[in-house]
Amino acid sequence: MPFLYGPRFVWVIRSPLLWFPLAQMLALGYSCAKGIHLFTVWRSVEGETDAGPRVSREQTRRRSIHRSRRSTCTKRPGRRGPGLPRGEEMTTRALRSTAIVVAGIMAALTLSACSGAGTDASGKTTINFMAADPQDKFQPLIDGFEEANPDITVAFTYVPFDQYNNVVSQRIGGKDAGVDVYVADTGTIGELATKGYLQDLSSLQAEADAASLPAAVASNVYDGKLWALPMWTSQQYLFYNKDLLDQAGLPYPSSDPNERVTYEELLADAKKAKSAGADWGLILDQIDRYYQIQPIAESAGGGSGATGDDLLTADVTNAGWKKAMNWYSELFSSEVAPRGNGAGQMVEVFAGGKAAYMISGPWQITTNANATPPVNFGVAPNPLFEGGKPTMATGSWNIGINPASQHQDAATAFIKYVSLSEEGNTKSTEITGITPTNLKSFDAWIAKEDAILPPSTTGVGALTLEELKTAAVNRPNSPGFRQLQDVLNRAFSDIRNGQDVDTTLENAQDELQSYWDQLK
Question: Theoretical Cys-Cys bridge with 351: which of 3, 56, 371, 466, CB 3.0 to 4.6 Å?
Answer without folding.
Answer: 371
